[in-house]
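Collaborator request log, item 7. Partner lab (contact: R.S.) asked for a structural prediction of Cystathionine gamma-synthase to inform their binding assays.
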Amino acid sequence: MKFGTKAIHAGVSPDPSTGAIMTPIFQTSTYVQKSPGDHYGYEYSRTHNPTRTALQQSIAALENGKHGICFSSGLGAIDSVVKLFNPGDEIISTNDLYGGTYRLFTKVFERYGIKFHFVSMADPEQLSTYVNEKTKMVWVETPTNPMMNIIDLEAMAAFTKKHGLLLAVDNTFASPYLQNPLDLGADIVMHSVTKYLGGHSDVVMGALVVNDDELASRLVFLQNACGATPGPQDCFLVLRGIKTLHLRMERHCQNGKTIAAYLKNHPKVEKVYWPGFEDHPNHLVAKRQMRDFGGMISFTLKGNSLDDAKKVMESFELFALAESLGGVESLCGHPATMTHASIPKAEREKVGLVDSLIRLSVGVEDAEDLKNDLANALSKI
Ligand SMILES: *Cc1c(COP(=O)(O)O)cnc(C)c1O
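Returned to partner:
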């Protein structure tokens, strides 16, 4: 099946007891057994729930993977990945990382004796110096947030295979529509389902997808043993969101392209970060590993004034100033004061994350209206 067909049909089948075409919300914590141990495959909803089963199968299919495992948030999913390891083990991670992941790694798991190396992944071979017998996994995000750098997943997978490491990819920014890391050699794909998969800014959820049966059973064990599982109503909402994932993504990409080009030609804009531009440093890698370039765009203002950036964001009427991304509505964020405020200014500026940098999650509204909103807001400075 092609992607759009999978988005609508994979993992779901009409309810056998009623014929309901949509998977019901199985709002139950427990299941009656005919005789001790003789049940219908469901015993307790932390362990299994039919609405969650359908969603896990759907997400696995979208990532061309065998096993989908859902969690109550993206960070809940990452938490279970790190719990595969033991004190003394080491993980190499991208340095341009989602702030919550960085916090989980450094403020929680370092206390339990797991060591993290945060490094630039422009060239996988540079990672060799961090690999020793304790190294277990490489953690990658691509495109990165908010600088929109692209990491070559095939090259990274060749590197991790050579060194016997697991490769885990946070695929949240791309969504399974744009990029399927398992096909490129990754071992674990992670999603903040909260973003594009859910797509309507009404659910917080996470997911992992893997092919290896043994790795899957260890992660399913952790899902049940640690208990960060999503409720059935949330699973239903995401199943509903997924049915239009391909349609939404097509429009996110189209609008992203229009808005990126508009900003690039705007006299008050200094720099636009979007992997679809031919002069983006990783454009060719993006073209090879992604179906299209998405609707996530960052840009900076000429003069690099924090006050100007604030004025622009306060002047938007459509772009809502809010954390998160990937919903149908357009959002804007200010990494220097919001998501990346905990990173020292000098460190931020080294990677280009300056005070005037604004991040857009371009939604699926009419592009003309979004352009007008940007024109109006930029006219205020
Ligand atoms: C939002 C996000 C997360 C965390 O997911 P939650 O669902 O908020 O827990 C992880 N990685 C990336 C790239 C994100 O955007």
